Amino acid sequence: MPATHDRLTRRTGRRRALSAGLLAATLAFTSACTGSSGDKPSPGQSAAQESDAKASATITEPKADATDVPASTGITFTTKDAEQTTVELKDAAGTPVKGTLAADGQSWLPAGALEYGGKYTATVTATGDDGKPATATSTFTVMAKPAKQVRITSFLGDGQVVGVGMPLIVRFGRDVPEQYRDDVQRRMSVTATPAQEGIWHWVSPTEVRYRPKEFWRPGSTVSYRVQAGGLPMGGGWYGRSDLTVDIKIGPSLIMQVENKTKRMTVTRDGKVVKTIPVSLGKKSTPSSSGTMVVIEKLRKTVFDTLDELGPQEGYRTKIDYAQRLTWGGEFIHAAPWSEGVQGRENVSHGCVNVSMADGAWLFANTRIGDPITVKGTERKLQNGNGWTDWNMSWDEYVKGSALPYEPDSGAATGDGASPTPDAEQGGQSATPTP
After folding, report:
1. 89-98, 190-199, 408-417: which has the minimum mean pLDDT?
2. 287 conformational bin, left if phi > 0, alpha if psi -120 to 50, beta if neither
3. What pTM, to 2 d.p., does this model score?
4. Looking at residues 281-286, what average pLDDT do you find?
5. Strand order in the sheet with 207-212
6. Environment class of 340 (CB within 10 Å of its CB; exposed 0-12, middle 13-18, buried 19+)
7. pLDDT band at 46 (very low <50, low <70, confident <90, very high)
8. In the chain, N or C: fewer CB atoms in 10 Å?
9. Better pLDDT: 417 or 375
10. Residue 310 has what pLDDT?
């Protein structure tokens, strides 16, 4: 297959982070944008048909009569002396395709992947101050359905209610090469109500996450979209389908643990609702200091480290009200055996021990994605050991974006500053630590 089948034309220049409001609202059939200057068309480009009009338009992608065009293709164009520009795409039957004008005003994306093998005609109309329209057209044919397709999934599902620290997590069925990630990220958008500034961050070749600059505002609705159906992803692989997920953010429930006082302070929507005595990790197995979020909740479970640590150091213990914080095995959980020293002494293997009653209360009130910050222990949280998105400063987090970041001055921010503790890189294990 020719290389042009496997790679959309590269675009350069600054792009605003894919946060709420990046793309224009979806239009029924046409999209208007501010005109921009353009050069004379090169061979294969489609120029304006009306030679006497002051304005002109050129479609640069897909080129006229192009074949084997990726199903994810957008319409890229330039205009000159245009006061109004509209874009229209129709299939072979003349049915208009819904789409969205990009923020750069020079490209337009269909609302979904185009039909494999389908024939389409794009029309860009530029109108100048003389009132005369100049129209450029490009008819092209979409490639046949590829044999190699990448599955795209979301950790969250429609309708879920999550905590204010929940990152949006999108996973790919195979590695996305680094040189393709910017194209993928351009097709990823987040719409939050109310609007909140945020950005995508690649944590691995197969996973990208999104977090706002500050914690999500409680009660927000969030919709995120990955428009990757038919998108080239390297090596002859293409995105299998588009993905859209709608979730809701619950109340702001934030947990703060101070090793010095051996207390957890729980706030809900900015008000302290409970103070809980805790026992953290003893000096030989300290708890991690940093900001984590609740990853999973287990009403009853068993911590079993006998195979990994052996009969001398290992243990098998039944646990109630367990809430995972790290992949390495740190949890909040009820520990009736340490109730006598909770609030006074650290005796755990790294977990946040609470009483049975407090464990039940926390379990009933928390959600996946609720944040917890532990301070003052002997060990710093290693980034990557859990959903540690909030364990990085904002400046560090934006470095994980495949696109240049530009602050969104129009986006609303959350109710409180996000935590910015020192961050470290490190590995992880899978051992639960009560």
Report:
1. 408-417
2. beta
3. 0.81
4. 93
5. 152-154, 168-172, 207-212, 198-204
6. exposed
7. low
8. N
9. 375
10. 63
pLDDT per position as a tens digit, 232-271: 999 999 999 999 999 999 999 999 999 999 999 999 999 9
Of 384 and 105, the structure prediction assigns the larger pLDDT to 384
Catalytic, out of 33, 201, 349, 351: 351
User: Tokens 């996946």, residue?
Assistant: 368
In b/e form, how buried is each residue of 412-432, taking b as 16+ CB within 10 angstroms? bbbeeebbebebeeeeeeebb
| Residue 333 bears catalytic tag | yes
Q: Are 242 and 227 in contact (CB under 8 A)?
A: yes
| Average pLDDT of the chain, as a whole number | 85
Other Cβ atoms within 10 Å of 117 Cβ, number: 11
Distance (Å, whole) CA 150 – CA 396: 29
d(CA 347, CA 14): 52
The catalytically annotated residue of 33, 201, 333, 349 is 333
> Tokens at residue 334, please?
């009820």
First to last CA, the chain: 55
Burial of 137 (0-12, 13-18, 19+ CB in 10 A): middle
Instruction: Check residue 166 and give its pLDDT.
Output: 98
Q: How far is CA 281 from CA 329, 349, 374, 385, in A?
A: 12, 5, 11, 17
Residue 168 neighbours by CB under 8 Å, 6+ apart: 154, 156, 190, 209, 210, 211, 222, 224, 245
- Can the peptide bond before residue 194 be classed as cis, meaning omega within 30 degrees of 0? yes
Indicate if 33 belongs to the active site.
no
